[in-house]
Amino acid sequence: MKTPYHDSLGDQMEFAYFCYLADKFETDPGLLNIALETVDRWLANGSSSPLRHRQWRDLIEQARLSKQGMQRLSKVLREDDEETRLFKGFAPFPAVLNQKEKRQFLCASRH
Question: Which pTM value belongs to this model?
Fold first, then answer.
């Protein structure tokens, strides 16, 4: 596994956030339904990035359907390159974590 490079605390927290999500989804795949509901709502309400949100939807749906799909989603969530970071900027996961969990990652957003 490539060692992640982070130039700020926010980048480190964002990386930790997505790794945490990968762990949660692997432990409780039912949480993927929350992400699907979010992305579907965003698309229905005129998403500003429908292509990216459909890509997330496809990735999440595949994770629900097969072990290989879950492995692919987990890999994307744990990747740490510029292209993947950009993609993660459109991630439909804000409702997946509870308030206590979210507090761990308050510095995660670069937006």
Answer: 0.85
